[in-house]
Amino acid sequence: MFFFQFFILSLILLMEIIFYSIGDWGKLGTGLKATAKSMDLISQENPPNFILSLGDNFYPNGVVCSSDEQWENTYKQVFTGKNLFCPWYSVLGNHDYILNPQAQIDYYLEGKDSRWIMPWKYYHVTKTYEDFSIQLVFIDTVALDLTSTSMLLPRDVIKREGLTQSASDKQLFWIEETLSKSKADWLIVVGHYNVYTGGYHGSNRNLINLLKPLFKKYQVDMYISGHCHHLEHLSDSGVEYIISGSGAKTGTTSKIYQTKFNYESNGYTIHSINKNILKTSFIDSYTSQELYSFEQEQKRNLN
Predict the structure, then answer these.
(1) What single DSSP character describes residue 74?
(2) 275: exposed, middle or buried (Cβ count in 10 Å: 0-12, 13-18, 19+)
């Protein structure tokens, strides 16, 4: 009987996928070191299958090239835990755009590191397991939301990188096309700029107008972002919004109508997912304790 119970438990564990989300981590200091240490500690019992890097990967201005010293100092020499050597699916933040955003793509294309994945500024990945599938849609909110970007980036950077309305429209078309074709059991969108927040950047009216209708129409389960330097869970119209932007920095926040939880210290999120349930836990970097968690049930492919 014991062997049978152990075998069943093993099967259940095998069917559960774990991933971490960490944003705005690219500043070497106490916060980043605490976050990396906590991720290493937690991963010894809950090893991630992959990690989501939510942008502002390198402060203050991104990296110059694929051999910039920050790759070593802020990334490779910091996240050294053996279980953190898994795919890091990454997006660009506004700070990453200032010097050379292409360098973070080149780092992947040149095979500089086995973990780092960023094939383009926006892309998608579908992961198929024994009895369920996950589609992750990574978007470039800096290029999509020109209103915010015009206030955050210098004009010469905007011009140099071709951040135009035409480029924004092209990406929005790609986002809708990708979401509309998804057959995955779980559909998660990942970007840098927040949609809703009680944090200092405030809810993003432009992204609400652009993305909320698509999220609702195509049954997106979750949008994960950084940008604001705190932890937050918000819920609106059947979509869960996660802010995990305190990998290195911290900021203030307050509650808005959509807020279910917020926290103003360094931390990150852990997501465990199976066929039926997605659980999200918010972790404090200094104590490695779970601050808050919630579960959501599968809503796609139920028929």
Answers:
(1) I
(2) middle
* Cis geometry, peptide bond prior to residue 60 (ω within 30 degrees of 0): yes
Residue pointed to by tokens 């103003």:
264
CA angle 235, 238, 240 (to 5 degrees): 40
**Rounded-to-integer distance, Cα 89 and Cα 108, Å:** 10
What confidence tens digit (pLDDT) does each residue in 255-267 have?
999 999 999 999 9
Residue 158 in tokens: 């905007």
Which residues does 143 contact at the CB level (< 8 Å), separation at least 6? 121, 122, 149, 161, 163, 167, 168, 171
Which domains, from first to last, does the chain contain? Answer: 15-297 (3.60.21.10)
Contact 81, 40 (CB under 8 A): yes
Tell me the C-alpha distance between 140 and 204, whole Å.
15
The whole-angstrom separation of Cα 73 and Cα 56 is: 15
Nearest CA to 24 out of 220, 190, 188, 249 is that of 249
Quick one: tokens of 136?
């992750």
CA–CA gap between residue 183 and residue 162 (Å, rounded)? 33
Q: Residue 15: which pLDDT band, with cuts at 50, 70 and 90?
A: confident
Residue 231, amino acid? L
User: How does pLDDT run across 265-299, given as a tens digit for each residue?
Assistant: 999 999 999 999 999 999 999 999 999 999 999 99
Distance CA 27, CA 78 (A): 11
At position 303, the amino acid (one-letter code) is N
Q: How far apart are CA 220 and CA 247, in angstroms?
A: 25
Q: Which helix (H) or strand (E) holds 126?
A: strand 123-128
What's the pTM value of the predicted model, to 2 decimals? Answer: 0.95
